[in-house]
Design goal:
By secondary structure, the protein is an alpha+beta fold. The chain is built from ten helices and 19 strands. The protein is about 30% helix and about 25% strand. Strand 3 and strand 4 form a beta hairpin. Helix 1 packs across helix 10. It is globular.
Amino acid sequence: MQTETVDFGFIYNAKKQQHIFPKMIDHFSKLSEEYNIRTVLFTLQNLDLEEQAISGTIIEGDRVSQGFCELPPLIYNFALHSTEDKIGKMRNLRKMENIMVINPVNRFVQGIIFEMLASLTGSEQFLLPSATLNAATLTEYLHKYDTLFLLPEKTFYPPKAVVIKKTRNDNYMICIGQNGQICEKNDIVNYIEKMTSNKKHILMKGIECFKWESDPLEARVYLQKDANGEWSVTTITAKHGIFSRNAFYHATISSILRDLYHNKNVEETLADISLRIAGFLDFYIPFMGSCTLDYIFDENGCPYLIYVAGFEQDSYLYHHMDSEAQSNLLNNAFHYLLFLMHNHVMERGQQNEVDKSGERGC
């Protein structure tokens, strides 16, 4: 089998990321021609580790073809891998010598992430008190707080928060989205244990949320490492999804919260917090190139972090970004690999620290 050599590789999920593939070809063709960089787009299924070869879409300037190539030294992973065989393949890929994979993991164990962030100076300004869910912590939190949030530690889908709120007669209203169920106080621990089916969850102190169009307002901050190798904010969006239905707002976070912030720019606040978080996580999670941070707001408009993930996996959210933001996600990925290539940032094999916070050890 005759193989070509390429400089950069980009992994995508053929089924779940069809929305990104045409734009990848368009943007990487232009960038390939501008920088004289040969690129391959491929799925994990089309990677042969034994032969160290790839079957994929090879881009050289405006020439786009299907073919075979050798493993490139720099690979950027857009996909989330959920099956044991794909997770194992990704683990073996990132252990190979002279190969660097950026974003080997795009899903994180939330309990570990929040435990890490609790040691960041000033984190109490944007973190709610939290603990791993069990009977003891649930009993403690029910005693201390009138409202609790319950979120899954890891999921392949947008996480759905459970809101537990004490009623006037000391029973509890349990809400998922717009659906609610009353539970008597003596049954609450057993009810939650059955509802979560022994799956790991994080328990958080709840807040009275700022609502917009009848639902809690959420913000998603997209961060990536840029052409200088530094974290930067790609875009910030107003959304639903974790506490209600999955949707974007057409309005911006700043316009929604302008009155609460007395004309101060809330997006600057979100960007400052998010850049601190991303820089801090770099010490614990090697080879991150992008991440998304989800926030919810209290009634005074103060943001609180509720979820951390890798590259955007939701086609609905991606499609509802403006075209410039979509382009920037791809441009930053390419330019970060260009930065790594020019600065000769390459290690022999990849460390396994990412296992501590990643998806099933991948």
